[in-house]
Design goal:
alpha/beta, 13 strands, single chain, 13 helices, about 400 residues, 6-stranded parallel beta sheet, about 15% strand, 5-stranded parallel beta sheet
Length: about 400
C-alpha cells in the first residue's frame, strides 16, 4: 500500500483556503511532555523512521539529474499505456495544478514549463493542457472532470490541493483509462501509476532540529516558527522537531503560527526577545527567515542559529552576515519529474510506484556554490530548482 500524505509546498508562504489562528502574543513555551511527544493525530513513528532512514539511502538514477533519481524504488509495468506508431507522436498531456499561490510553486511551475518545451521539441509531448484551481478543491474537481470528459488526454498529471476531497476526482481520472501521475501532494488511493514526491516532512523537520541541537549549547533557548496548523507535511515537520528536541537539552520556548507573514514573524520574534534570550530559530518553511533575523537586528541582539530553506533571500542573508545556518530543502526540481514520467509511461517504460526523490539540505560548505549558480535570480527563487540545463535558463525564472 502506497503511503499517503499531503505534501504541500514546503518552501513557501502558503496561501491556502484553510482556517488558521495566528497568535497575537507569544505563547508560553511547551512543557517537557509537549516537546517530546508529538500529537498522535500527526505523528506516525513508522513513517518517521522510514523517512529518516531514506535520508541516508543512495538513490538510483543519474548523478547529475536528481529529478530522475529514486530512493528504494519498486517499479511498475506500464506497457498497457504504451502508445504505438502515430498514436505515440505528440500525445496530449493534461495537468491539473492546485495553484501557483506561493513562490515555491511559481518556481516549480516555470521549471515544469521549460521541461515541457524540451519534450515538445522532441515530439515526446504534444499539446500540454493546464488548469489552475487557485487552491479551490471544488474548482480542481471540476478541472479534472473536464479533462476526463474530453476523452483525449493521453496522460493526466495531478497536483492535488488537498488529500481526502480530491481522492474521488483522482479515482475518476484513473477510471478514464489514461495513466494518472500524482505529485507533490498525496491522495487516499493507489490507482495512480506513480506518486512523485521528495522524502517528506519528517525528514525536513528533523534536518533542521538536528542542526540546532548540534550547533547550540545545552540549555539554549529555541523558538519554533510555523506557518499553519492542520497541514500534514507542516505538522510532520514540527512532529519530527519535537522528537529531536525532546531528546536534547535545548529549551523550546514557544511554537508560533505566522501564516508565513513577514510582519507577523518579526513581531512575534521581537516579543520573545523582550522576554529573554533566543539562541535558535527553527522554521517549518524558510521564506520568512529574513524577517525573523531583522527582529534581532532591531533589538541589537546577536543573530541566532537558524534553519531556513533554499529560498535565495535567506541564503543571501546567510552569506552576507556569516550566519550559523542550514537550508532544509523540499526539492523544487520535482516539477520536472511528472512530465518526464508521462513520456516514459507512454513509451511503456517502467516507473517507480512511489517515486521518492532525494531531499538534501544546503549546508555552509555548499552555500557559495549555490549562490553563484543563482546569482542573477530573484530573491523569491529556490536554489535547488534543478533547471540550469533547460533552454530557458536563466531568463524564464527571472521574468516571473
Amino acid at each position: 500500500m502506497r503511503r499517503t500524505r499531503v505534501l504541500l509546498a514546503a518552501g513557501a508562504a502558503l496561501s491556502l483556503a484553510l482556517t488558521a489562528c495566528t497568535t497575537d502574543t507569544p505563547t508560553d513555551g511547551p512543557g517537557e511532555e509537549d516537546q517530546a511527544s508529538p500529537s498522535g493525530d500527526w505523528f506516525d513513528p513508522e513513517e518517521y523512521e522510514a523517512q529518516l532512514a531514506q535520508r541516508d539511502m543512495e538513490p538510483e538514477g543519474p548523478a547529475d539529474e536528481p529529478w530522475l533519481q529514486a530512493i528504494d524504488p519498486s517499479y511498475v509495468d506500464t506497457s498497457e499505456y504504451a502508445l504505438e506508431g502515430e498514436d505515440r507522436r505528440d500525445p496530449t498531456v493534461c495537468f491539473s495544478n492546485a495553484s501557483v499561490s506561493n513562490p515555491w510553486r511559481v518556481t516549480g511551475w516555470i521549471t515544469m514549463q521549460q521541461q515541457v518545451e524540451v519534450l515538445q521539441d522532441s515530439g515526446d509531448i504534444g499539446e500540454f493542457r493546464v488548469s489552475d484551481a487557485a487552491d479551490d478543491d471544488n474548482q480542481q474537481i471540476s478541472d479534472i472532470q473536464a479533462f476526463v470528459d474530453s476523452g483525449d488526454c493521453d496522460a493526466i498529471i495531478i497536483s492535488p490541493s488537498t488529500t481526502a476531497t480530491l481522492t474521488p476526482a483522482v479515482e475518476a481520472a484513473c477510471e478514464s483509462g489514461a495513466p494518472v501521475i500524482v505529485f507533490d501532494r498525496g491522495v487516499n488511493t493507489d490507482c495512480q501509476v506513480t506518486f512523485i514526491h521528495p522524502i517528506g516532512g519528517y525528514a525536513f523537520g528533523a534536518d533542521a532540529a538536528e542542526f540546532l541541537v548540534e550547533e547550540l549549547e545545552p540549555g539554549s533557548r529555541v523558538l519554533a516558527l510555523r506557518i499553519l496548523p492542520g497541514v500534514d507535511v507542516l505538522e510532520h515537520r514540527w512532529a519530527a522537531a519535537q522528537q529531536v528536541f525532546g531528546d536534547s537539552e535545548l529549551e523550546v520556548i514557544g511554537h508560533e503560527f505566522t501564516e508565513g507573514d513577514g510582519a507577523t514573524i518579526k513581531d512575534l520574534v521581537t516579543q520573545h526577545l523582550q522576554r529573554g534570550d533566543v539562541d535558535g530559530i527553527w522554521m517549518d518553511a524558510g521564506d520568512g527567515a529574513v524577517a525573523a533575523l531583522e527582529a534581532f537586528e532591531d533589538a541589537g541582539q546577536p543573530y541566532p542559529v537558524i534553519s531556513g530553506e533554499d529560498e535565495l533571500s535567506f541564503m543571501r542573508k546567510w552569506q552576507e552576515e556569516d550566519l550559523t545556518a542550514l537550508a532544509p530543502v523540499y526539492s523544487n526540481f520535482q516539477w520536472r519529474t511528472p512530465v518526464l514520467a508521462a513520456s516514459m509511461i507512454l513509451d511503456g517504460e517502467e516507473v517507480p510506484e512511489e517515486w521518492v526523490l532525494p531531499q538534501e539540505p544546503v549546508t555552509q560548505a555548499e552555500l557559495d556554490d549555490y549562490l553563484e549558480r543563482n546569482a542573477d535570480m530573484p530573491s523569491l527563487h529556490y536554489a535547488k530548482f534543478g533547471g540550469e540545463d533547460l533552454p530557458g535558463f536563466p531568463e524564464a525564472w527571472q521574468d516571473r
